[in-house]
Specification:
single chain; alpha+beta; Arc Repressor Mutant, subunit A; Spore Coat Polysaccharide Biosynthesis Protein SpsA, Chain A; Phosphorylase Kinase, domain 1; nine-stranded mixed beta sheet; five-stranded antiparallel beta sheet; 19% strand
Length: 616
Amino acid sequence: MQHVLNILEIINKEPQMSQKKIAERCDISVGKVNYIMNDLTDKEMIYSKKSGKRMSYYLHEKGIALLQKELAAFQGKKIRMHQQQGHKKVTQAVILAAGNRKEIGKPSCLLEVGEQILLDRHLDVLQNNGIEKVVIVTGYQPEAFENWVNHSGVHFTENHKYKWTGSMASLACVSELITDDFLLIEDDIVIEERAISQVLQYPERDCVLITSESGSGDEAFVEIQNGHLYKISKDIHQLNRIDGEMIGVSKISYDVFSKMLETFRHNKNSYVNYEYLLLDVARTYDIGYVKLQSVVWAEIDTNEQYEHVQNKVYHQLKRKEAEFKEKQIKRHVAEALQISPEEVTDIQPFGGMTNTNFKVRALEKEYVLRIPGSGTEEMISRHDEMVNSNVASELGIDAALLYFNEETGVKVAELIPNAETLNPKTAKRSDNMQLTAAVLKQLHTSGAVMHNTFNVFEKMAHYEGLLQKVNGRNFDDYEEVKHAVMKLKAMYEEMNVTLTACHNDTVPENFVKSGEEKIYLIDWEYGGMNDPMWDLAAHSLECDFSQEEEELFLDYYFNGNVEEEHKTRILMNKIFQDFLWSIWTNIKEAKGSDFGTYGIDRYNRAKKHIQIFYGA
């Protein structure tokens, strides 16, 4: 039995270890290791995966259960919950806001901190870091959250027994709403954004955030052993040493959350807090930690603490965040231009929904720095964007590209002089139509080759798979409409359309004028070989051209020679686009976002255009 347990423990810790190495570690023959592992495989204790010439071994649930029983219980050893290590993106968060705040008179997160409600700051920070779904647990004054009920991506649940329960009871309330790993935040915490970022970027799926002792008098002290959580206690006498203080921000895997819920179901103490259930799991499984020495943070439980935050902590926090962001920006620009960070002399936000674009001055010249928003790496191939951006830059269609990091998506380009970004209204002006039509014609007839292809039908199938994965649903008559779209696909593919270099995201905001005669086409995330009529159809839809406006736009593009086939392909591409983006919207809303009527509007427009196409 001991050899079996030793082999299971080795596999749990080092899945890539060969049978020969396992034999050396256990001091037994390779033949015996092979016999034991075959037996464990037959008993569904372990399974193997081959990658190239290397074989890796992993534990089934039965194997983990045996380790938990034989090792963790009797030898005090810990098991790795997640054998296949690697960073997993977290897109869900829980904010615990049920606590009684009679002295303050409202939930702590609804206090104004600086010029912003604390809850709004929490939501902004979470969105900046790729969180798409936030579940808020209320209790005390749940009606005070009325203004956030319809907030995009925000969901509410209530701990009706908050007066008589601890924080674990509140956390248990989210069990039906949380479907994956999540970030846990206590609502009364005011903390630097970088702390949230570092917890989310921690390589293991479970960790707590700790700092040096604050001296607040209500610290949850933490003791670390072998790089993982060992003890949590507010009683300093129960710890062998103090490694820090837990401050109400944790990353919790769905597996660990399930273990916590399982323990809580048999709990007899309704006042237990989630930290101690997490510690219970940590007695058997590895729970990591992130320690920040100089992070600015505070909690607001009392009026005195609130006054301290208002008068001192928040000003320190904003100053620290501004300094941190400035250092990041200067570091990016310095790396791109091969200069010293001190030579970057001016930084200004420059468009972008989340201020990810900056106008910077260095060496007496102005540039644009783009830092991608969190989460975009899953939707966009940065390598393809780099290639396509270079193509556009070489054609003179986009500003000169000076630097592109295909791993991070950070790029630096020359600043477009006298820049004026179009919008749906200004894009309808005749002079601007001439410019946009001309730049698209230049792209489509350039002969440039982009090594990727934008295939709308492949994307439809991909999005349907993603929608199923997040348990989303399409519209009631989706299959009927899809059947009509697939009939169009068959007709479309018979046209043998010649693909050209295309932008594929021709919203008016991607056209930037420089003076009266020059226009640039920017942002090539979706660039690729496609039917050039896609770009014309997209621009018409996004600008909401009337029939007469579209006729004028096409007249400029085709120099007065618009063929019926062009009109047919444009109408087909409009249908394909509206159908595709309606599925995309359903995916986003299934994950917690709120797009209002955007998805159904595009879906209904697709149906309308199908009727027009068939002359119905």
